[in-house]
């Protein structure tokens, strides 16, 4: 597979679906899954351009490792917040978390 | 009719698998089905990394995403639903505007992908990327590497702090 377009197509499909999940879902865990899809599409782009671009070193791979580490930290903190939300208001519907609304 | 290359056929299969399972993640009303579909999406992305000669990243994807983050997400799905409510469902809203916006986004991206003249550079293919990644991490990217390790430690301690029971003092 020496063409760049299929990889970029796959990445844009994953990105659009992640944005769709973030827009339409009401459950906070489902929104988190959409964000994971978006991060994966960014990783595919990093690796693709590192493979086909004019780079002698593997900087794209190192960036992908950093993105994966940040995704792990983000998932842990987000799930702690979601579990606290469930303890406090009894649901994870993001529309119900409106105590600070004026 | 010539027989197409096996690698291209396999790539098409992986492409279809990732697209279909990502669609399931996004649209399935049952959250457990979404989480299981996310498993197939992440495995497919690992296979794409192998196509791009990124062996270490593919292994990292399987170990961290499938072994760590997906398990955390399934914990989240299970812990944030009442036991008496047997159907783990999830409501959606803004379906039509979201569909229009995302289709527009996809069309614009495809337009750019197919109308750009990409410069393709044939790099020599290395046997293994692990040695080069290790060298880069400990020379050029030493400071970000240390910063991100401290950040990961702080985030995990903070998450454990946030989700423990409050002690009555």
Give your account of this protein's structure.
The complex is a heterodimer of chains A (102) and B (169). Chain A is mostly helical and 102 residues long. Chain A has one domain (5-89): Helix Hairpins, CATH 1.10.287.3510. Chain A is built from three helices and no strands. The termini of chain A are far apart. Chain B has 169 residues and is mostly helical. Chain B has helices at residues 6-27, 31-51, 55-79, 95-115, 130-138, 142-163. The longest helix of chain B has 25 residues, at 55-79. At the A-B interface, helix 1, helix 2 and helix 3 of A face helix 1, helix 2, helix 3, helix 4 and helix 5 of B.
What is the helical fraction of chain B, as a range of percent? over 70%
| Helical content of chain A (DSSP H or I, runs of 4+) | over 70%
Per the CATH scheme, the topology name of chain A is Helix Hairpins
User: Mean pLDDT of chain B, nearest integer?
Assistant: 88
What is the element layout, followed by pairings?
The complex is a heterodimer of chains A (102) and B (169).
Chain A: H1 5-24, H2 28-52, H3 59-89
Helix pairs in contact in A: 1-2, 2-3
Chain B: H1 6-27, H2 31-51, H3 55-79, H4 95-115, H5 130-138, H6 142-163
Helix pairs in contact in B: 1-2, 2-3
